[in-house]
Amino acid sequence: MCYNPYKQAKSRFCEVIRLNLTSPSELKEILKRHGFSFSKSLGQNFLIDKNVLDKIVDASGACGEINALEIGPGAGTLSRELAARAKRLVAVEIDKALIPVLSETMAEFDNFTLINADIMDVDIAALVEEQFGGEPFIVAANLPYYITTPIIMSLLESGADVRSMTLMVQKEVALRMAAGVGKDYGALSVAVQYYTRPEIVCRAEPHCFMPQPKVASVAIKLDVLKEPAVKGKDTDVFFKVVKSAFGQRRKTLVNSLAGSPYIKIEKAAIISMLDEMGLRPDIRGEKLSIEQFAELSDRCAEYRAASGEE
Ligand code: SAM
Fold first, then answer.
1. Which atom of ligand 1 is nearest to the CA of 53?
2. Strand pairing class (67-71; 46-47)
3. For residue range 141-194, what is the model confidence (pLDDT) as tens digits?
4. Residues ≥6 apart with Cβ < 8 Å to 182
5. Which helix (H) or strand (E) holds 240?
6. Which of 84, 95, 94, 92 is nearest to 60 (CA)?
7. pLDDT digit string, tens, across residues 35-64
8. Distance between CA atoms of 279 and 272, rounded to whole angstroms?
9. Which residue among 14, 152, 158, 230 is least enclosed by CB atoms within 10 Å?
10. Atom of ligand 1 minimally distant from the CA of 74
11. How far is 117 from 102, CA to CA, in rounded Å?
12. What angle do CA 40, 46, 52 make, to 5 degrees?
C-alpha cells in the first residue's frame, strides 16, 4: 500500500475545515447521534459563535511552543481550535456522556488528551507535571459558571507554571475581576489582581451559546504576573484581611476587621493602623486599593507577631 503523508495531511486538513461545531445544525446532529442531552446543572452552554470563538483562541496565545489546558471541552468546539494551534492540549471534562462525542470531534488530533474528571477533584500541579512534564502552559475555557471562582482560584493557587488564562465567564464576574476601586470592586478583584493582569477580550450575548444562558457573558484574559502585584509580609494575613474587609460590605472596615474570626485584632489597634496610613476610621473596605490592603495586612501581621498571635 502506498503511504502518502502529503495526501493524509491534506485529507486531515479538509476534515478540520469540514467539521463546523459553531454551526447549530451540525452540533445538534453530532450530539443527537451520540444520544447527548444538555445538563443545566453542569453549566452546559456550548459556544456556537465563530467570531467569539476566534477572539478567545487568538487572545489565548495558543501556539506550537506552549501547552494548553482546557476545562470543560463540551463537544470540542474550542478544543479543536486550541489543539490545531497548541503544542499539546489536555482537557478535563466531568461529563462521561461527552467522551464518545469528543472521541469523534477530536479524532484527528494526536496532541489531545481527555481526562474524565471533576476539575475540583484534580490536583492541578500533579496533573500538569504528569501531562506537560513541568513545562509552562496556558489555560483556555468556556467555564461552567457554577464554579467559576473556585476554578480560577485553584489554578492561581496551584503553584503550577500557568502563564495566562483566557476564560469565558458570566459578565458580572468578569467585571468584578477587572474592577479597580469603586463599583464592582471586591475580594475577587483583589485576589485576581494580586496574581494577574486582567483584560476584557469580548462580550458574548446569550444567542452565542446552545442552549442560551439567561445571562450575558464576557471573555477575559488573565495574564499571570511573574511576581504577585504587591509584596506583602504574609500572604495568608493579606487574604484574611481582604476576605474580612469584604465579608460584610455594609460595615466599616474597622468593624469588619474587628469582628473577623480570621484577624483577631481589637478595634482601637485597627483605628490606629488606619490613622497611620492616613485613612479615616469610617472608611469601607471597597475604598482600599490593593497596595493599601498590602500595607494594612503588613501592619496586622506585625501587630499579631508582636502580641504573640500566629
Ligand atoms: N467548551 C465547550 C464550549 O465552549 O462549547 C463547553 C463549555 S460549557 C459552558 C462547560 C463545560 O464544562 C461542559 O462541557 C461541562 O460538562 C463541563 N463541566 C462542568 N462542570 C465541570 C467540572 N466540575 N469539571 C470539569 N468539567 C466540568
1. 4
2. unpaired
3. 999 999 999 999 999 999 999 999 999 999 999 999 999 998 899 999 999 999
4. 286
5. helix 235-247
6. 84
7. 999 999 999 999 999 999 999 999 999 999
8. 10
9. 14
10. 14
11. 14
12. 140
Contact status, residue 71 vs residue 151, Cβ threshold 8 Å: yes
Question: Which DSSP symbol is given to 27?
Answer: H
Q: Whose CA is nearest to atom 18 of ligand 1?
A: 72
Pocket of ligand 1 (CB under 6 A): 42-47, 71-74, 77-78, 92-95, 98, 118-120, 142, 144, 147
> Ligand 1 centre from 45 Cα, in Å?
8
For residue 215, the 8-state DSSP code is S
**Residues 265 and 241 sit within 8 Å (Cβ to Cβ):** no
Instruction: Report the atom number in ligand 1 closest to the C-alpha of 70.
Output: 1
Q: How many A from CA of 93 to the centre of ligand 1? A: 6
Contact yes or no for 216/206 (Cβ under 8 A): yes
Smallest CA separation from ligand 1 atom 12, residue: 72
163-190 in b/e form (b: 16+ CB < 10 A) is ebbbbbbbbebbbbbbbeeeebbbbbbb
For residue 245, how far is its CA from the centre of ligand 1 (angstroms)?
Answer: 32
Between the CA of 261 and the centroid of ligand 1 the distance, in Å, is 35
Alpha carbon 14 to its chain centroid, in Å, reads: 33
The total of other beta-carbon atoms located within 10 Å of residue 113's CB is 14
Q: How does pLDDT run across 236-248, given as a tens digit for each residue?
A: 999 999 999 998 8
Q: How far is the CA of 228 from the centre of ligand 1 (A)?
A: 29
If one residue of 95, 116, 148, 201 were mutated to test the ligand 1 pocket, choosing by the most ligand atoms within 8 A of its CB, it would be: 95
> What is the C-alpha to C-alpha distance for residues 86 and 198, in angstroms, rounded to an integer?
22
